[in-house]
């Protein structure tokens, strides 16, 4: 049974009032403080990884609408008709570094999570080299996790020209001058 609220009505001759109890449904509390967790496949978040963002409200009435944010920009939203949380998957690019948060709102009040910082490392660089009729495309996976240095963690080189592969594509790479 819900709460009983007094309702005042005037008696028939309009001279006094009487109190009548009227039942109303109980209000459920707003969604509680939400918790954001990030799950990545490895110990570091790298460009191309799929990351799961999960937002959970510990209590509150349903349905609960969840919103996911990167800084102050909404990435997506989802409703949970029952259960305490939802997930949002994200394929990482270099632009996905930043502070993530989520919000749980059941219509009676929204609660935000603490911010979680994600640093995405890596990226790709495509370079095209031309030399005496040969065209080379070099693709590098960059690792910027070493402060102040650019590290090539892997690379691939494809050279074509004169309707055949270059006999020694390594000769096409620019040499470091020191």
UniProtKB/TrEMBL annotation:
Compartments where located: Cell membrane
Alphabetized InterPro entries for the sequence: Ig-like_dom, Ig-like_dom_sf, Ig-like_fold, Ig_sub
Keyword Glycoprotein: yes
Keyword flag Glycoprotein: yes
Pfam families documented for this protein: Ig_2
SMART domains for the chain: IG (SM00409)
SUPFAM superfamilies xrefs: Immunoglobulin
Swiss-Prot/TrEMBL keywords: Cell membrane, Disulfide bond, Glycoprotein, Immunoglobulin domain, Membrane, Signal
GO CC aspect terms: plasma membrane
Region (Disordered): 14-33
Domain annotation Ig-like: ranges: 25-119
Protein name: Fc receptor-like protein 2
Organism of provenance: Mustela putorius furo (European domestic ferret)
Gene encoding the protein: LOC123393735
């Amino acid at each position: 049974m819900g709460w009983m609220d007094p309702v005042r009505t005037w008696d028939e001759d309009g001279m006094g009032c009487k109190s009548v109890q009227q039942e109303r449904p109980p209000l459920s509390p707003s969604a509680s403080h939400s918790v954001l967790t990030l799950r990545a496949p490895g110990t570091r978040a790298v460009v191309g990884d799929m990351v799961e963002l999960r937002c959970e409200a510990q209590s509150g009435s349903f349905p609960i609408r969840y919103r996911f944010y990167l800084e102050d920009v909404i990435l997506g939203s989802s409703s949970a008709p029952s259960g305490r949380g939802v997930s949002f998957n994200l394929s990482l690019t270099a632009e996905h570094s930043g502070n993530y948060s989520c919000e749980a709102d059941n219509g009676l009040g929204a609660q935000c999570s603490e911010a979680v910082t994600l640093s995405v490392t890596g990226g790709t660089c495509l370079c095209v080299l031309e030399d005496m009729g040969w065209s080379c495309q070099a693709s590098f996976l960059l690792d910027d996790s070493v402060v102040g240095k650019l590290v090539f963690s892997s690379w691939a080189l494809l050279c074509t020209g004169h309707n055949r592969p270059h006999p020694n594509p390594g000769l096409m790479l620019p040499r470091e001058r020191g």
